[in-house]
Amino acid sequence: MTLLIDTAQLAAGQRVLILNSAADPFVEFAAQQISYGQLVLAEDNIAALQQPVRFVGPGSVQHIPFHDYPLHAVPGSMDVAVMNLLYQPGNAWVHYGLEVAAYALKVGGQLYVMGAKDRGIVSVAKRMQACFGNVETLEISKGQRVVRARKDAGWQAPEGHPPVLPLDDVFAGGKLDEGTRLLLEVLEVRATDVALDIGCGAGYIGLHIAQQAPKGQVTMVDASLAAVARARQRVVESGQSNVQVLPSAGAQAVSEQRFDLIVTNPPFHTGGIQTTTIAERFIREAAQVLRPPRGRFYLVANRFLKYEPALRASFKVVEEVGGDTRYKVLRALSV
Fold first, then answer.
1. What 3-state class would DSSP assign to 106?
2. For the purposes of burial, counting CB atoms within 10 Å of the CB of 164, is it exposed (0-12), middle (13-18) or buried (19 or more)?
3. What pLDDT is attached to residue 155?
4. What is the pTM of this model?
5. Half-sphere exposure of 130 (CA within 13 A, CB side)
6. Rounded CA gap, 43 and 61, in Å?
7. Measured on CA atoms in the order 124, 129, 132, 137, is the torsion positive or negative?
8. How confident is the model at residue 1, as a pLDDT?
9. CA pseudo-torsion sign 200, 201, 205, 209
10. Residue scoring higher pLDDT (24 or 171)
11. How confident is the model over 280-297, as pLDDT tens digits?
12. Of all helices (H) and strands (E), which one includes residue 221?
């Protein structure tokens, strides 16, 4: 993962923008290289922001939410922008990131993008050519490549500038995925439930619970600031008054509270790699904040993901209560 470090050219005093890639080791390298400059983390995932940037010199580190960066930053003010495709959840995020770079860079500023062929770096390079009018491949190693574009004096802002991340497109335009639908079919909600939705996404599960628990209260949490923004929009649109949405890495923001009902449809990829680590953290934290003796925890997952051992390590009763050939809905009880 040193290809960016070996390739990107930084200088003391520069202003460097990291595009939704705060977890990349390049961030610490950049902080050391720019000395009296400024490092701006345009980042969506607050869990990535919890990794401290060590060895920061006299310069400053600033965080701006990735999904609404143009609302908080001056255009044409950055010397360098950097994006690693490994940390982008999908194509919409990548395309938006390129537009943000064009918006943020000074004339003469440079955008570096790193990625593998199977992460779309070739098509991204073509899009950079279309956006900036130039692109060059700087390095190729072990399936990874670094490409660079420069913002020239003749650059023209495209129609619709400044850029906007299309939250409806990012969160499936209001369509439930199959796993969520199966979870809702078997979910038992009581009218007075105090409930928690961990990794709420756009908030479909949490809002369903709020409607079924008019005398209760629902808290939705997500590490994605874009997800929190979309979920808050949907809460306003729904008119539900018994819901709050908080940014949180897992259940960290509500660790002192207790809940009758907890639900999750956890992600199982991080940095482009399949993992059970996120869901296992959700399981452990759910066990800590679930109220005994009648608390219920529901988890939906692809059938091939083996979450049952982690559930049995934290709960005494674990059972499958729904699903199909692709998905399973598991329920654990605090007894």
1. strand
2. middle
3. 87
4. 0.93
5. 10
6. 12
7. positive
8. 58
9. positive
10. 24
11. 999 999 999 999 888 999
12. strand 217-222
